[in-house]
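Hey,
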Amino acid sequence: KPLKINRRKSQSRSRKTPKLSLVSTSKPKDSELKKRKEATKPFMSAASWVATNRGKKIVGHNENVTREIASLTKIATCIVVLRTVEKHSYSLETKVKVSERASRIHGTSAELKAGDELSVHDLLFALMLPSGNDAALVLAEEIGKLISEDTPYQAFISEMNQLAAGLNLGSTSFTNPHGMSTSLNISTSKEIAALAYHGLNYSVFKAVCSTTSYTCEVVNSETKRRVTW
């Protein structure tokens, strides 16, 4: 008898192809991971920086290198004011007077004049928005009195360093409340990020840092003026 061939079955076998997987099961090489990580870094021109989320580092560069921190000092100044007034139940609406010394300080300024009277609350905005060295000095002189009536300024600086020590910021030290390089204040970008994150525990700190413009009334003798920072 003639041999019968099942052509349909034969053709179906010849058309079979191996299945392809679209998902790689092999781990990327270290060099590839490094390339991917570098590609996700934001562009920063700073010699030292760090990006964090909820206090945790995401990415950074030279974040542990100790450097002079200039006006970033004022983050600590603001926090020390807030925690000191809280400790002593001192109202932020208390009016204080600008000293001659504070009005004459150089550098970035809130344009405060000797004899100006404004609240501690207003001074915090004068400190942070225009980065007022004059406001920093007034706050250190006045709030320092809550810590020590004999040496208020020195007591305030000591409190700034105690704040850093309490947060385990081992590379951070302060010699003034404003950051001018007449005497050095030093830290790292990683520790400054930790300091700023700690500041978010204070509602006033968050309010000040989220404000782009602030207007208040300043009294000097019998005259009044409105200022905006």
